[in-house]
Amino acid sequence: MDDARPPSRNQESTVREKHRYSIGTRQSALASVGDLSAIGLTLVLAIVIGVFAGKWLGSKFGNQELGLIIGFLLGTAAGFIQMYKSISRWNQRVEQQKELEQKSKINPD
Description:
Elements: H1 9-18, H2 23-61, H3 64-106
């Protein structure tokens, strides 16, 4: 009949620690990881597309090296602009999530 005892304080804190993060919080964390990993991929793809497009245009106009450099610079600029936009959107979502968490702590209805 020892199983009928109420849990000790150590056991209660262990249970609380295991369930400290809700499913929604875990899902939003995974979504954030996906968003942030997409930022790096976007930057790399923009540079690669810029390089190949610049190289192709350079070959059409007779100066492949200059086209390559211009394409690299334009691709890099496009990648960083897109990276800035993505990070801004991600920051807005994080701030909205924090506001919702604060509201739910204040008003648990």
